[in-house]
């Protein structure tokens, strides 16, 4: 869900805030399934929370070190987001239900044959 | 599968259902490092990654006055129009009535 969402934001300016309190503003160049981020043309945003990386124009950020990504509100269709999240929640619920049904069915079949042996 | 049928009839609310019900509502999110967020929930996934709109972040820090040795809790707030929050920092998500005043 969020992988697709970030793909729609490629080319937009975002501010990535990391878990170590660093904030980096840049243009979203690419994203992957782990939500690792490639940022182009990095610039300063929060004055104190920004490291001095004047040499760097482009960077790769591991998804797991991200705390927040500040997004432009006008680029996000909130209704579409909500519908996609609802759909995703229903999908993962049905996947979990079928998985537990398969597990329960397998357990029931094994118990049945065991019972038969005991009766005899 | 009988249990399954009963569950779908009663639409039993698992934790993720309770969050799903809060979509487009204002939620209160408690995060690691004494941070709290308050904003409108637009999207979430099973990792608890979320997109929140019109969100206010509160960071609570404990500061000690060197002269009086008094402990003071300081809250720093800021607002962001649209924010993606990574799920691994989230502790809890709770609904707030969207008509509730600040």
From TrEMBL, chain A:
Biased composition annotated in UniProt, kind: Gly residues: 104-120
Annotated Sm domain residues: 1-75
UniProt region (Disordered), positions on chain: 101-120
SMART domains: Sm
One annotated GO biological process: mRNA splicing, via spliceosome
CDD domains: LSm2
Keyword Plastid found: no
Electron transport is among the record's keywords: no
GO cellular component: catalytic step 2 spliceosome; Lsm1-7-Pat1 complex; P-body; precatalytic spliceosome; U4/U6 x U5 tri-snRNP complex; U6 snRNP
GO molecular function: RNA binding
Swiss-Prot/TrEMBL keywords: mRNA processing, mRNA splicing, Nucleus, Ribonucleoprotein, RNA-binding, Spliceosome
Subcellular location per the Swiss-Prot or TrEMBL entry: Nucleus
Recorded family membership: Belongs to the snRNP Sm proteins family.
Protein's name in the database: U6 snRNA-associated Sm-like protein LSm2
From TrEMBL, chain B:
Pfam families named among the record's database cross-references: LSM
One of the GO BP terms on file: mRNA splicing, via spliceosome
Localization per record: Nucleus
Entry keyword Nucleus: yes
GO molecular function, one term: RNA binding
Domain Sm span(s) in chain numbering: 14-99
Gene3D superfamilies: 2.30.30.100
CDD domains: LSm3
Primary localization: nucleus
PROSITE patterns linked to this entry: SM
Keywords linked to the UniProt accession: mRNA processing, mRNA splicing, Nucleus, Ribonucleoprotein, RNA-binding, Spliceosome
GO cellular-component term (any): U4/U6 x U5 tri-snRNP complex
InterPro entries: Lsm3 (IPR034105), LSM_dom_sf (IPR010920), Sm (IPR047575), Sm-like_LSM3 (IPR040002), Sm_dom_euk/arc (IPR001163)
UniProt keyword Nucleotide-binding present: no
The protein's role, per its UniProt record: Binds specifically to the 3'-terminal U-tract of U6 snRNA.
Assembly information from the UniProt record: LSm subunits form a heteromer with a doughnut shape.
Family stated for the protein in its record: Belongs to the snRNP Sm proteins family.
Designated name of the protein: U6 snRNA-associated Sm-like protein LSm3
Natural source organism: Macrostomum lignano
Lineage: Eukaryota, Metazoa, Spiralia, Lophotrochozoa, Platyhelminthes
Encoding gene per record: LSM3
């Amino acid at each position: 869900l969020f992988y697709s969402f970030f793909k729609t934001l490629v080319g937009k300016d975002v501010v990535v805030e990391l878990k170590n309190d660093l904030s980096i503003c840049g243009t979203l160049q690419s994203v992957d399934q782990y939500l690792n981020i490639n940022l182009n043309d990095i610039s300063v945003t929060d004055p104190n929370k920004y490291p001095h990386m004047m040499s760097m124009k482009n960077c790769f950020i591991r998804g797991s070190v991200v705390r927040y990504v500040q997004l432009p509100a006008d680029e996000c269709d909130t209704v579409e987001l909500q519908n996609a999240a609802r759909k995703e929640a229903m999908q993962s619920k049905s996947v979990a239900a079928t998985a537990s049904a398969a597990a329960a069915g397998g357990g029931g079949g094994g118990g049945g044959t065991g019972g038969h042996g005991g009766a005899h | 599968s009988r249990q399954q049928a009963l569950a779908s009839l009663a639409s039993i609310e698992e934790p993720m259902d309770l969050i799903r019900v809060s979509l487009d509502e204002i939620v209160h999110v408690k995060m690691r490092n004494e941070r709290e967020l308050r904003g409108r929930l637009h999207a979430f996934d099973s990792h608890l990654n979320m997109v929140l709109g019109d969100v206010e972040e509160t960071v609570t820090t404990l500061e000690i006055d060197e002269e009086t040795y008094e402990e003071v809790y300081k809250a720093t707030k800021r607002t962001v129009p649209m924010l993606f929050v990574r799920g691994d920092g989230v502790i809890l998500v709770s609904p707030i009535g969207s008509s509730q005043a600040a």
